[in-house]
Amino acid sequence: MAKSPFGKEMKKGVLKRVLRQLKGYMPWVVATMLLAIVTVAGNLAVPVFFGQIIDLIIDGKPFNPQIFGLFTVIGAVIAVTCLAQWLMSAINNRITYNVVKDMRQEAFARLQILPLKFIDGRPYGDVVSRIIGDVEQFADGLLMGFTQLFTGVLTIIGTLVIMLLINWIIALVVFVVTPLSLFVAKFIASRTYSMFKKASEARGEQTAFIDEMIGNLKVVQAFSREDENLDKFDEINERLTKVSLKSIFFSSLVNPSTRFINSVVYAMVALAGALTLVLEMQAPMLVPSVVFSAGLLTTLLSYANQYTKPFNEISGVVTELQNAVACAGRIYEIIDEPCEVPDSPSAETLEMAEGDVELKGVYFSYSADKKLIEDLNVRARPGQRIAIVGPTGCGKTTLINLLMRFYDPDGGTISVDGKNISGLTRHSLRSNYGMVLQDTWLKCGTVRENICMGKPDASESEVVEAAKAAHAHNFIMQLPQGYDTVIGEDGGSLSQGQKQLLCITRIMLSIPPILILDEATSHIDVRTEKRIQDAFAKLMAGRTSFIVAHRLSTIREADLILVMKDGKIVEQGTHKELLALGGFYNKLYNSQFAG
Description:
This protein is α/β, with parallel strands linked by helices. Helix content is 63%, strand content 10%. It has two domains: 14-335, ABC transporter transmembrane region fold; 357-593, P-loop containing nucleotide triphosphate hydrolases (Rossmann fold, 3-Layer(aba) Sandwich). It is built from 21 helices and twelve strands. The strands form three sheets. Strands 6-9-10-3-11-12 form a six-stranded mixed beta sheet, sandwiched between helices.
């Protein structure tokens, strides 16, 4: 099968980016290189001393004081080498996990400025898998690369130079045979990258599926979909198992293959050294002028072992780097994703808005082949309550997304107080909106922290007053620690209605000039809903409000009702006016009270 040149270029690009991220840690990189030189030098010095000791013992002087002196030197060299190796590992850990921290931070920061269509178009679990799981896999590969790659290369060069100085013939034998292990490693590693990439993708898909199922387990059980979900999970799990086994199988071939070649090299050095010793004793004129001894042979064998060992380690590093590069590529996909159009340098800051909101000739669609909103024209004057009704999928929530500038229109303009929102900073625009959605969101923290999200400096009395206005104070005080009760992710064990009351309290506290209520009381009982509607009526007094509602009984008092169908406003007017028309709104309203 032909290899993809794009794949090669992509791998090179990922590696270059990883190297660029190391620039900020160059002092540490230099330090680890210097320590690696010390470590390698110590490891290379020890065999020379041992060779000298063996020659002294063979010479019949086992109690020669020189031997004890050499052992002392060996002990000192080993101590320095161990210290350097420990420091090198500590620095490598520091570099690796700081780079990993930077990558996670960069990826998460990117998520904050990505357009919502990126999040809406991907499983949440896959994004989580990239930032958590793939970064961990990348860290493992990077750490192994730092720890073994540089020291391995230095060891190969150092041992080869020393062997050439001792006996160039034997060194030549080692030099000619050993590269075979590199060719084997490269041949196998080149075929494992795609497998590691598939394994990483399957792992992300599995995480996304688990996340989806845990978040919707009640629905799964209510519709008895456990068996179908098990089948789906088994299919993903089986696919992940197969690609993982393939990648591990091929990558595990590297070690035994290179070990076999290394053993052949070791045997050839032993054979060549033995033959040299024999020739030196029987035909000295046929061997080099340098005296060859048993001690030198022992030293050469040690160097041959040290020379071949890094090839084996480097082959393992190459395998891990294949996985690391595949994982890094998935992380960089998030980091490289085009962010939402940034605020222009000349963007204005919207202070306290009066609430004059207008949409002129607005066009918008989520995909080019499926039109949604076409030529939408709406004017909301300061203090007006605008209700938006219509069947599912008509564009009600999309209209809210456009007002908040979560999406930019494909055509037309949206203005607040006469200013085009594309010329305003997003932060200042959104700070003028208060929004309560049908889908509640609470963070892991205390009840007070969740209420104060829109106004962190709120006093205790302000928090309590807002909770009372939202009819949440009573149930909060029944919690174990009241306002200091810590609730888990997404509200923990709170009921859906209680979660929504906390979200309403959050808005009651911040009191923004423009309100957006998207089915804000959908999970609340009728009696509490009536009280909250009264509280909302007080809150909305003098404030421009957009109310998305399915229960039409809740928007009778709206100043203007927009009836949407297929992305267009088909009717607009007050409740009485629309009923009198006898059109689409009349049918919607009567259908809710029929029977």
